[in-house]
Amino acid sequence: MADTEYTGFMYAAHRDVLVVENLAKEIDPYTEAIAFHSQQAAEKMVKNVFIQNGIVPSKTHSVDELLSKAIDSGWLSVEPPVIDAAINISMHAVAARYSQMPDIDRGEALQAIADCNTIAKSLAENGYDSVEIKVEVHYLHEEKPRDDSDE
C-alpha cells in the first residue's frame, strides 16, 4: 500500500516499516535503528487496535503491555509466540534510542524484524490492519549477493 492509503498510527507504522526495509539492505551499520523502527512499527500497529475499537491507547512503548490490554479487552486472541515477540521487541523502544551504546548486534536486529512481523501477522489474523516488513532474503546473510555481471 502507498502511504496515502494509511492514516494515523498505521501511517506512522508504515513509515517505520519503510525505514527498516531500506536500512536492512546494509544491516550492520544500522542495527540499532532497525531494531528501534521495528519496535516502533509493532507498537503503532498494536495501538491502532485500540483506535479501531474506539479507545485512545495508553502512552507506553511496551508492546507486550499494549498487547495484554488488547487481549484482556477481548479484541485479540494470540498464540504464545506472539506474546514472546511482543516481550522481545519491547526492549528496543528506549534502549536503541537513548542508550550511550545500545550494542544491538545483527542477530538482534534481525530478530526485531521477525518479532514485528509475527505481531503484524497475528493482528491481520484477528482482522486488524497491519503491515509486514519485507526484506529480501539475500540482505539477511553476512555476505552481499554475488554480482555475476563482473565475470
From TrEMBL:
Start and end residues of each HEPN domain: 10-119
Superkingdom classification of source: Bacteria
Coiled-coil residue spans: none
One Pfam family hit: HEPN
Cited SMART domains: HEPN
InterPro entries the UniProt entry points to: HEPN_dom
Listed name of the protein: HEPN domain-containing protein
Organism encoding this protein: Adlercreutzia rubneri
